[in-house]
Amino acid sequence: MVRVSNFIISFVNVLTFMIAIMAIGFGLWFKADEGKSLCQKSLYMPLLLFGVAILVLSLLGLIGSCCRASFFLWIYLFFLFLLIVGMICFSIFTILVANKNVSKALSVKGGNDAKFGDWGHWLEKHIVNDKNWGEIKSCMVTFKYCQTMPRGKSGDFYKYSLPPAQSSCCKPPTYCGFEFTNATYWTMPKSGPAVPHSDCKTWSNSQTELCFNCQSCKTSFVDAIQRNWNRMALTNFCIFVLIIIIYSIGCCALRNNRSKGYYKPYL
Predict the structure, then answer these.
(1) Where are the bilayer-spanning segments (predicted)?
(2) Which long-range contacts (CB under 8 A, 24 or more apart) does 52-57 make?
(3) Could you give the CA distance from residue 83 to residue 77 in angstroms, rounded to a whole number?
């Protein structure tokens, strides 16, 4: 009779095996399709690496549980343990990066003492640079991020509450005093911008430029990522608990494999 723990591990790894095949398939599709944009093709490598890693892990789990091969189950549990440690490290890293108050509290200020780490500005340094920001702009243009804004006359447009990132990237800053034509087309007054701010000069009515290079857009985008990482904490916790449960069941399956009279293969 099949032990329950072995059956659960086998079932879980069949599901992850299917997910891995789908990830690899999408990755190869993004790579091969000439019609895909550079932004979409950039998903190729992460999807492929994720798919291959999950595929190998699933095969180890399936062989270890279905064939009752303790050696493969040991390797499977070892990689699960590394995943658990990695998720703990990632959670700590997320707290440091996405919560400026925490990063400031951990920094040692004053005198010539070295700081623990300027984690609060990590996202800004690694996102708002020439290479990465260029790819982000390409993605916003490709997926027509600004074309989803509400349309209408000036009075109707100002009734809507836009997300901070969309408000900062898809239209000129309000303090520039530009005249409304439509949601993504604004006219500079003949007297010039209301304030001599660099973002007012950076704005362009070109649909591939808009205010994507504005400092306000970059700041809002980083703030949006920080908020999303904070929201992701709950999802990360649920996945962490699920992996802990799978790891515990895997340990039971390993014990079953090593128990007396339990080495016969399935018929």
Answers:
(1) 6-30, 42-65, 71-97, 233-250
(2) 52/20, 52/24, 53/20, 54/16, 54/17, 54/19, 54/20, 54/23, 55/17, 55/20, 55/21, 55/24, 57/13, 57/16
(3) 10
Which residues contact residue 240 at a Cβ distance below 8 angstroms, ignoring those fewer than 6 apart? 84, 87, 88, 91
Closest CA to 238 of 17, 99, 19, 87: 87
Dihedral angle sign, alpha carbons of residues 211, 212, 213, 219: positive
pLDDT of residue 117: 46
Q: Are 64 and 76 in contact (CB under 8 A)?
A: yes
For the cut 50, the answer to whether the pLDDT of residue 261 exceeds it is no
CA angle 237, 238, 241 (to 5 degrees): 85
Query: Which pLDDT does position 105 carry in this prediction?
Result: 55
DSSP E strand stretches across the chain? 179-182, 185-187
